[in-house]
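Subject: Sanity check before I submit

Could someone independently write out the structure tokens for this chain? I want to compare against mine line by line before I put it in a report. The sequence has 593 residues.
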Amino acid sequence: MIQGHTFHIPVMGLGYTIDSPVKVAPYGISSVVALANDSLIEKMREFYCTQFNLPYRAIPRRDKDYRSDRIREYLNTLDIIVRRKFEEVIHSIHEKGAELEKYIDMLPEMSEIRKNFRRITQGQYDMHKVWQWARENLVPGSIDVNIMTKLDKVNFFRGEQLPQEYNDAHAAIRGFATSNLNSSVVLSAGMNPYLFSYMEQFEDFYPGVDGQMKKKIILKVSDYRSALIQGKMLAKKGLWVSEFRVESGLNCGGHAFATDGYLMGPVLEEFKTLRDTLRDTLNEIYVQALTEKGRIAPDKPFPMLVTAQGGVGTDDEHRLLLEHYQVDSVGWGTPFLLVPEATTTDEDTLQLLVNAREEDLYLSNVSPIGVPFNNVRNNTKDLEKEARIREGKPGSPCTLQHLKLFRDKDGSPICTASKEYQRQALAEAEESIEDTVLLAKTRQNILDKVCLCVGLATSTKKAHGISNGADGDAVAVCPGPNLAWFDKIVTLREMAGHIYGRNQVISRTDRPHMFVNELKMYVDYLKTKVDEAGRPLNNRARAQLTTFRENLLKGIDYYNGLFEQIRGRFVSNGDKNENLLEEYRKELSGITF
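---
Independent answer below. Compare away.
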């Protein structure tokens, strides 16, 4: 039985969803806040305290635990504001066509809440009873947070290295765990056993006397095996995974963590088939761990949601994920970059995104962490980088230092986008590499990197009129390839209507299915990997590429069967999509190792 919304807004960049809860949570829509950039978080707390007349005391970097404190206080501020705005929505029942009706109108048609509201407000109705019903049945969206687990930089205080609990990701967990929120943390970018162990000490992650957890854990994964491994690791510590958030390896925004050719459809099919097995396996381990800790163990397994995100763009695709794969919610990310009522983007960047087409959206090498990064051409951060290179001053000042994840020749932490690193790396390459082709590739790889700590936060500051100081106004932005089919700014109500099939915000009719789009990206990715491998291939490389291709071919077989099964229900342009599948099969067969 569907009560509220069947979509959520995933984390985007560092700033694009940093204040989304203020905008959408009062209407029952959940969103995710990035906890990476505490400098931006502190600026946003100051901004919103001023906007809502809340007390504000600055938390300076000279404080030993400033990062955790900044995060906790910002999350508490969001909680206060969302609660206040939600109350305003409830009380707006006295105003015709006001915020309460907006809340209800955006819900899916099959929502029991929507149906019940329409029923009790037909004809002459008792205003007080409707108000009471609203208080008992409507809830704000969740203020969830995201932590990239491996972005766990060591920190220092007065020249001395601090203990591990002061590392970036550890401090972020502490800030969230000690906040007033009743919500979830989305753990992404792989395993961090030390961080998982650190989470054991926070009471809010365990069931209370009421049998509920105040803080829940969401794991972002791209395949079933990863879910099982990480879920077991957390269960052994007495920590329950309340949701597995399955994301496409490549058809997503931000960093792209490619699988070994495992496509989203087959991955979701595996979750659908093994979901109960996964829950029961983890529950057995979890109950034993809680018992050993002397804690309350549940009589039956806690709910374990499975959600999906990555490249979804039509109501047909949304329904396919909900009904065929039986996921509990669908993440709509990139399209919401064009909804100022939901995300925060400056006007110039908004226009760049509106005008972006397929050829403008690409998988880049700009991330300092060495993972492919979804990018849009002509963003001002890349233009700034190129200008510095022309001036003979490559690299960026490393002011925020969150991505100092590598070591220089002296063993000191350093960011690969920094001026210091690029100067050293370029000099070493010139001195040690004689082959001109290899040298050019090495130089390009070094120079590609940009400062994402600053770039992914700048657009939000510009939109709110917050000075970026010496860091300048250059913006990095990380839409997924799905943006190509969204070409106008829309309202929150329009986007919700598009998701639920009440209206359309995509004007083009040539959009392939999300699964076909992802397949194309994986075919292109495989060709890139083959080129990078060089010749001759060693046995290990050949085996890896062969397995990758075989997994893609198996995925095509799966999609042929799926599209035949759901023809006329969830897939428009069925013949076109099936023809594309055969084109990509031939293309894969023509790739030689």
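---
OP: Matches mine. For the report I'm noting this point. Residues 109 and 498 are 12 Å apart (CA to CA).
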